[in-house]
């Protein structure tokens, strides 16, 4: 009976620790949120440029311009993942 109580207590403590660790994965300040948004914008622009280069129908300057447009769109709309034109 005592071991059952110990097991239940250990399970409760483990569940509480897991729940607390999940909550700390999110941004804690507005600055962190802005940084995460910028990182997402850069990653989206990078992916756009790579897809453009893989397509072979556009030149390097055209792919660079597409990347710039995606980054600028991210700045203007507050960090949404996809440009409004798509």
In a nutshell, what does this entry contain?
Keywords: Signal. By secondary structure, the chain is mainly α.
Q: Please, could you describe this protein's structure?
A:
Residues 27-86 are annotated as: Disordered. Residues 32-44, 54-74 have a biased composition (Basic and acidic residues). Keywords: Signal. It contains 3 helices and no strands. The protein is an all-alpha fold and 86 residues long. It has one domain (2-76). The termini are far apart. 8% of the residues are buried. Residues 81-86 have low confidence and may be disordered.
**How many discrete domains?**
1
Helix content: over 70%
SS field, number of helical segments:
3
> Mean pLDDT, rounded to whole units?
77
Strand fraction = under 5%
Instruction: Based on Cα principal axes, name the global outline.
Output: elongated
Question: What's the SSE pattern?
Answer: HHH
Which consecutive residue ranges, at least 5 long each, have pLDDT under 50?
A: 81-86
**Radius of gyration in whole Å, from Cα?**
22 Å
Terminal CA distance reads: 62 Å
Protein name: PsiF repeat-containing protein
Biased composition (Basic and acidic residues): 32-44, 54-74
Keywords: Signal
Signal peptide: 1-27
């Amino acid at each position: 009976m005592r071991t059952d109580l110990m097991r239940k207590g250990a399970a409760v403590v483990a569940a509480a620790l897991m729940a607390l660790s999940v909550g700390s994965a999110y941004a804690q300040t507005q600055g962190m949120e802005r940084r995460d948004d910028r990182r997402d914008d850069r990653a989206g622009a990078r992916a756009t440029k790579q897809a453009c280069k893989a397509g072979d129908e556009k030149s390097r300057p055209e792919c660079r311009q597409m990347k710039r447009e995606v980054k600028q769109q991210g700045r203007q709309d507050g960090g949404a993942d996809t440009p409004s034109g798509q």
